[in-house]
Specification:
single chain; 81 residues; two-stranded antiparallel ribbon
């Protein structure tokens, strides 16, 4: 498997509490030990984390399978894996 292909971290979303105005880095490679957030494990893979800022304090479901078309948010893609 190529390093530039995301690894499926889990076949379910990660429920997280986001804080309004806080910037997050969602792991897009699947290699982070701090799922669903980036820990720098993507270096040398050609993949980069997705930076996003929470617009409100809320619970969100972040993609765990790394296949979502709505990344960093889950779109249900894991159901077809």
């Amino acid at each position: 498997m190529s390093d530039s292909v995301p690894i499926i971290a889990q076949k379910a979303p990660y429920p997280v509490e986001l804080e309004a105005g806080k910037t997050y880095f969602w792991c897009a490679c699947g290699r982070s030990q701090n799922q669903p957030f980036c820990d720098g494990s993507h270096k040398a893979t050609g993949l980069s984390p997705v930076r996003f800022t929470a617009e409100a304090d809320r619970k969100a479901f972040l993609c765990g399978c790394k296949q979502s078309a709505r990344s960093p948010f889950c779109d249900g893609s894991h159901k077809s894996l």
